[in-house]
Design a protein that fits this description.
- 47% of the residues lie in helices and 14% in strands.
- The protein is α+β, with helices and mostly antiparallel strands.
- The protein folds into 2 domains: 129 residues, Alpha-Beta Complex (Cathepsin B, Chain A); 150 residues, no CATH class.
- Strand 6 and strand 7 form a beta hairpin.
- The radius of gyration is 20 Å and the shape is globular.
- The chain starts with a strand and ends in a 7-residue tail after the last helix.
- The model has no long low-confidence stretch (mean pLDDT 93).
- This is DUF4872 domain-containing protein.
- Keywords: Plasmid.
- It comes from Haloferax mediterranei (strain ATCC 33500 / DSM 1411 / JCM 8866 / NBRC 14739 / NCIMB 2177 / R-4).
- Pfam families: BtrH_N (PF14399), DUF4872 (PF16169).
């Protein structure tokens, strides 16, 4: 197997931020997972109408995080999608031959090494670090060790036509050099996250599908959740919501990871220290929502009062997140561009 030498795999909380951490360590830049998450513009809230069901689902981190990270640090990179599999295979394997790890955007439902109930909407991010004619080695932040999949499995996972479409997309560094100021990049990531959460229409980024975004979407989700007892199978959307909150087993909608980002990046940008503590507290409230949803799932006959309690807690979270992001925006300003 052709392998990239010197690549250090580490698992993480968020697949994309863990991939960025591993890639930046390989090139000698050594950004933590939390810093990668913050510079890339996490977290998010995107509410999708489920295409096959009468309820909604959501994601709690942005789909553009990896590209935004490289843009903000001025790292030359190639971001490409839309080629047929054979063309994408030839181009990415050539990059591995040149010792460049490739960030891939995949459908987790097609990755046979992940559990059947793996709580993750696509895209799932992993790094291609080796290959032979029939096998690919992936560095996946959800796994403790690098793993191998067949070429046919990669083909299935790399392209999907679900409500978050995938089309053989990859991202690779083309010149291993940071050209932007790190503090400016940190401020830009924090600024855009605040702007996006508070006023998502101001951010020209693709959430990969129609749907509400930001604080308005979070409030809408609370309203939806309160109506779910009326559905014929109310536990099904609850289970999906619980999975979205608990991606990679983190259980806090990535808000605790973002609190770590505020702690690290806030020191560089002059943010008030208490913002990290307040966001960590929001993360704990998300864990309380997860526990409530677990209780609903476990009940033989789910009680409407439980749904109402969870909806109220989500509404409170929306208020607390709005206050934190308003203060970030007040201190750093609001973003007026996609970067």
């Amino acid at each position: 197997m052709e392998l990239i030498e010197g690549y250090d795999h580490q698992s993480g909380v968020h697949c994309g931020a863990a991939a960025l951490r591993n890639v930046t360590e390989y090139y000698g830049w050594n950004y933590s997972e939390a810093s990668c998450f913050g510079i890339g513009g996490g977290p998010a809230f995107v509410l999708y109408e489920h295409p096959e069901e009468s309820w909604v689902t959501f994601r709690t981190s942005p789909t553009w995080l990896e590209r935004a990270f490289f843009e903000r640090l001025g790292i030359s990179h190639l971001s490409k999608a839309g080629d047929d599999f054979e063309t994408a295979w030839e181009e990415t394997t050539a990059r591995v031959d040149a010792d460049d790890p490739i960030i891939l955007f995949l459908d987790p439902a097609s990755l046979d090494y992940l559990p059947d109930d793996f709580p993750h909407l696509p895209p799932h991010v992993a790094v291609m670090t080796g290959y032979d004619d029939e096998t690919v080695q992936l560095s996946d932040g959800a796994m403790e060790e690098q793993t191998e999949v067949s070429r046919s499995t990669l083909e299935d996972a790399w392209s999907a036509d679900r409500f978050v479409p995938l089309d053989n997309e990859y991202l690779v560094v083309t010149r291993a050099r940071i050209t932007a100021d790190g503090t400016d990049a940190a401020a830009a990531g924090l600024r855009q996250a605040a702007t996006y959460i508070l006023d998502p229409l101001q951010i020209k980024r693709d959430a990969r599908g129609p749907g509400e975004e930001g604080i308005p979407a979070l409030r809408s989700f609370a309203d939806y959740l309160g109506t779910w007892p009326e559905l014929p199978e109310p536990v099904r959307p609850v289970r999906a919501a619980r999975q979205s909150i608990d991606e990679h087993g983190e259980g806090a909608a990535f808000r605790v990871l973002y609190a770590e980002a505020l702690e690290e990046l806030g020191q560089r940008t002059g943010l008030a220290h208490d913002l990290a503590d307040r966001m960590a507290s929001v993360g704990e409230e998300w864990r309380n929502v997860k526990t409530l949803l677990d209780d609903i799932i476990a009940e033989d006959e789910p009680q409407p009062a439980r749904f109402a309690e969870a909806a109220t807690l989500i509404g409170d979270i929306a208020d607390r997140e709005e206050a934190v992001f308003e203060e970030i925006a007040d201190e750093l300003g609001r973003s007026d561009s996609s970067v």
